UniProtKB/TrEMBL annotation:
Keywords: Oxidoreductase, PQQ biosynthesis
Matches recorded under HAMAP family: PQQ_syn_PqqC
Family according to the record: Belongs to the PqqC family.
GO biological process, one term: pyrroloquinoline quinone biosynthetic process
Catalytic function, reaction form: 6-(2-amino-2-carboxyethyl)-7,8-dioxo-1,2,3,4,7,8-hexahydroquinoline-2,4-dicarboxylate + 3 O2 = pyrroloquinoline quinone + 2 H2O2 + 2 H2O + H(+)
Biological role: Ring cyclization and eight-electron oxidation of 3a-(2-amino-2-carboxyethyl)-4,5-dioxo-4,5,6,7,8,9-hexahydroquinoline-7,9-dicarboxylic-acid to PQQ.
Organism phylogeny: Bacteria, Pseudomonadati, Pseudomonadota, Alphaproteobacteria, Hyphomicrobiales
EC number(s) given by UniProt: 1.3.3.11
Record carries keyword Oxidoreductase: yes
InterPro entries: Haem_Oase-like_multi-hlx (IPR016084), PqqC (IPR011845), PqqC-like (IPR039068), Thiaminase-2/PQQC (IPR004305)
Name used for this protein in its record: Pyrroloquinoline-quinone synthase
Superkingdom of the source species: Bacteria
Domain Thiaminase-2/PQQC span(s) in chain numbering: 23-232
The species this protein was found in: Methylocella tundrae
SUPFAM superfamilies per UniProt: Heme oxygenase-like
């Protein structure tokens, strides 16, 4: 006797919590940037120092944008408890008191790579496309409904594995990378799971229609696209075909 299969979920029917979470996680399986060719070159020791410098310099634009997008998000939140929870993300990046924060730890990385700190923080040498890509993320969080804006942060669900791979791969493959300059990634091994656990619970509780759930899944896709596109432009400028736009950082060696 054939088993009866459950009817397919109607397009308007709310996904259950487990199904909703599975749909979010499936985005990472499909399109998280650990699958990008530039990522594989970086972690596999296939880039030279100039190319690693270009990556760190451009990635600074993203690191610098994160607390700004979180501040933009908080400016729209009337729920005091949510603001009290979310503000830790700004402290994580900008620092608080004796805690220097993630941006300072990223600058320790660029210092260690021999880049001038004022040049890095000016963002003048970043690829024009990098700056536009990261600002699209800030705008998205500022303009989308709160639950969708929160969902865009859920790429953090997939981050710990890439950080572990980055720490091991770069320390093993580059003699100009030391344990000291990898402090940013080591700290994110604990921060990212904490943040993603809260954000996932919030999204599951507050996406109350199928349309909102689908918008949240799309937000995770958008964020993965932001991360992927940053590597696309790096690869195009500094690997192949190697077309560096006017005004962008030109490494001493390529």
């Amino acid at each position: 006797m054939n088993e009866m299969k459950a009817p397919p979920l109607a397009a308007s029917e709310l996904m259950g919590p487990n199904e909703f979470e599975a749909a979010i996680r499936a985005v990472g399986t499909e399109r998280y940037h650990d699958k990008h060719v530039f990522h594989k070159l970086l972690h596999g020791g296939k880039l030279n120092k100039g190319q690693v410098q270009a990556w760190a310099l451009n990635r600074y634009c993203y690191q610098e944008a994160v607390p700004r997008k979180d501040a933009a998000f908080m400016s729209r939140v009337h729920d005091r408890d949510l603001r009290r929870e979310w503000i830790s993300r700004i402290h994580d990046h900008d620092g608080l008191g004796e805690e220097p924060g993630g941006i300072e730890r990223w600058l320790i990385l660029t210092d260690g790579l021999g880049l001038d700190r004022k040049y890095v923080t000016s963002r003048q040498g970043a690829l024009p496309a990098t700056r536009h890509i990261v600002e699209s993320y800030v705008r998205f969080v500022r303009e989308q409904p709160l639950v969708v804006a929160v969902a865009s942060s859920l790429s953090e669900l997939f981050a710990p594995s890439i950080h572990r791979e980055r720490i091991a791969g770069m320390l093993e493959n580059y003699d100009f990378i030391s344990d000291h300059v990898m402090a940013y990634f080591k700290r994110r091994l604990t921060q990212a799971p904490r943040d993603s656990e809260f954000a996932l619970a919030y999204v599951k509780a507050n996406a109350r229609t199928r349309e909102e759930q689908e918008a949240c899944v799309d937000a995770v896709r958008f964020k993965c696209d932001v991360l992927w596109a940053q590597l696309d432009v790096l690869n195009h400028a500094y690997v192949t075909p190697g077309l560096i736009p006017p005004g962008a950082f030109v490494p001493a060696s390529l």
